[in-house]
Write a structure and sequence with these properties.
Elements: H1 19-28, E1 41-47, H2 51-62, E2 67-71, H3 77-81, H4 84-101, H5 118-133, H6 138-143, E3 146-150, E4 153-157, E5 160-163, E6 166-175, E7 179-181, H7 189-192, E8 209-213, H8 217-229, E9 232-237, H9 248-261, E10 264-267, E11 270-277, E12 280-287, E13 290-296, E14 298-301, E15 305-307, H10 314-317, E16 321-322, E17 325-326, E18 339-341, H11 352-367, E19 381-383, E20 388-393, H12 396-401, E21 406-412, H13 417-422, E22 428-434, E23 440-447, H14 450-462, H15 467-471, H16 482-494, H17 498-511
Parallel strand pairs: 1-2, 1-6, 2-3, 6-18, 8-9, 8-14, 9-10
Antiparallel strand pairs: 4-5, 5-6, 7-15, 11-12, 12-13, 16-17, 19-20, 20-23, 21-22, 22-23
Helix pairs in contact: 1-5, 2-11, 4-5, 4-8
Length: about 500
């Protein structure tokens, strides 16, 4: 584990990793692995074994290229080891706990609240993570024709990379080293210790009191999950609302849900200092001169991400970077035209599916003289709180900033039969079109399974279809996706102008 961690009994996994952690490590960072001998000049060398790196290397090898991949830690990157996979396993468990607590709404009662077995929850997460880890295993990559090297990669020139005493020469390279948790400058924080997404999934015991710094997707998802497990959760964010990238209305639905579930929100407050208090940690926060002290057993830092650029020797390769990461053009080329970048290290879209899409673009442009542009990609996003918040395209605010006139069509879930039956009426779907037409420019869905539903709108936008096309698409009843069909029907009704209505009336009168 890198950087400070929570102290004491909470983190013990590094002493003796559980069975499934050992299995995962055997797959994605085999202790006995021997780096191969370099095979002359490679068509593509990839630095970083996360999603972007894996897709780049596997895709290149599958097309017949001589490909190598260098990873300094574990294959699978944040997504497998410290991100999407373990977090969604915990979220699934927390949803099951929440569902049991709603028994009276569904006509049954439990003798008492569900007994939380946190070690069992974490064991399930590790078991499933190890199961999924086989897809990113070093042996699998070798079987697909990728030369896998473990160690720190560093450019030694514009077309060469050193790793563990060997030199890999390349015609093209991809930097895909990802990002890591950014840590705020809070006095005493490093001394008292803190968790990040890289360490929280190594917890052996449930923190009785958890302080979360950051109201973005990671902070919100884990705050809700740990609250449902029984932790007293305090979420601190300097903004006045959660999920600042989302529409105020979408964020408000999540905020209201958090308040109902007992997450203590401290919005508009800045973390100022931290110190140890016996076996606990205190955090002093401030808002407009007012100060108060929060007491917790662990602090989770989730204030954002920063690119991982350490030790890459970018200067030797002539690659320009900034605090925001590797600088690339719209075709993902760096200042060295033979070197590309993909994923969190160069993109503002820090999602696994975005890294996947950018890696595919890299393959086309790097190996086949492609001219594909990253700006042409349409990338949806989803925050996996309960309810989820999913979005694609422009928000109403962004459309206004760009001077795009829109019409907005909305349906609240309380009007959707399946949402009523499921007891999941908190939420809505809204679709924005260019004013006067049905061409979709953006959409937001707040629903239990919004991440599953947003794909239909993304397809409409990708294929340049309209709400009229959606209205003609038959949807199963009852489903919550029917909200989208109802929006499309609402749009279709706007096509029935007074003139068209009079013409229909005359036609039907003549036909009587």
């Amino acid at each position: 584990l890198s950087g400070p961690t929570a102290v004491g009994y909470l983190l013990v996994m590094e002493i003796e990793p559980p069975e499934y952690d050992r299995l995962l490590r055997q797959q994605v960072a085999p202790p006995e692995w021997t780096n191969p001998a370099p095979k002359g000049r490679y068509n593509l060398v990839v630095i970083g074994g996360g999603t972007a790196g894996l897709i780049s290397a596997i895709g290149a090898a599958g097309l017949g290229a001589r490909a190598a991949l260098v990873e300094r830690h574990r294959l699978g990157g944040d997504c497998l080891n410290y991100g999407c996979v373990p977090s969604k396993a915990l979220i699934a468990a927390s949803r099951a706990v929440r569902q049991l607590s709603l028994g009276e709404q569904f006509g049954f009662r439990l003798a008492g609240p569900p007994a939380i077995d946190f070690p069992a929850i974490m064991e399930r997460m590790r078991r499933l993570r190890a199961k999924i880890g086989k897809h990113d295993a070093a042996e699998r990559l070798r079987g697909l024709g990728v030369d896998v090297f473990f160690g720190q990669a560093a450019f030694t020139g514009p077309d060469a990379i050193a790793v563990e005493g060997q030199t890999l020469r390349f015609r093209r390279a991809v930097i895909a080293t990802g990002s890591q948790a950014a840590v705020p400058a809070v006095e005493g924080l490093a001394e008292v210790g803190y968790l990040t997404n890289q360490t929280i999934f190594s917890l052996a015991e449930l923190p009785r009191r958890l302080i979360v710094l950051g109201g973005g997707p990671i902070g919100c998802e884990l705050s809700q999950a740990f609250r449902r497990f029984g932790s007293e959760v305090h979420l601190v964010d300097h903004g006045d609302a959660l999920l600042k990238k989302e529409s105020p209305e979408a964020a408000s639905v999540v905020q209201s849900q958090f308040e109902r579930e007992g997450v203590c929100l401290h919005l508009g407050w800045e973390a100022k200092s931290a110190e140890k208090m016996g076996g606990s940690t205190s955090l002093v926060i401030e808002r407009r001169g007012e100060k108060k002290k929060l007491i917790g057993d662990a602090i989770l830092v989730a204030v954002g991400r920063q690119p991982q650029l350490d030790g890459l020797g970018l200067e030797a390769a002539g690659v320009t970077c900034s605090a925001h990461g590797v600088e690339v053009n719209d075709r993902l080329q760096t200042s060295n035209r033979g070197i590309f970048a993909a994923g969190d290290v160069c993109s503002r879209y820090q999602f696994t599916h975005a890294a996947d899409a950018l890696a595919r673009l890299c393959i086309q442009n790097a190996l086949f003289l492609g001219r594909k542009k990253a700006s042409a990609l349409l990338i949806p996003r989803c925050t996996y709180t309960d309810p989820e918040v999913a979005h694609v395209g422009l928000t109403e605010r962004e459309a206004g900033q760009q001077g795009i006139a829109i019409n907005s069509y909305r349906v609240d879930l309380e009007e959707v039969d399946r949402a009523i039956l499921d007891g999941e009426e908190a939420g809505f779907a809204v679709i924005h079109t260019r004013r006067g037409g049905g061409r979709v420019v953006g959409a937001t869905i707040v629903a239990r399974h919004a991440g599953e539903m947003i794909g239909e709108i993304t397809l409409l936008m990708t294929k340049r279809l309209s709400l009229g096309d959606l209205a003609r698409t038959i949807h199963c009843y009852p489903t919550q996706a029917e909200a989208l069909k109802r929006i499309a029907d609402n749009y279709s009704r706007t096509r029935l102008t007074p003139l068209v209505a009079r013409l229909f009336e005359k036609w039907l009168a003549w036909r009587r």
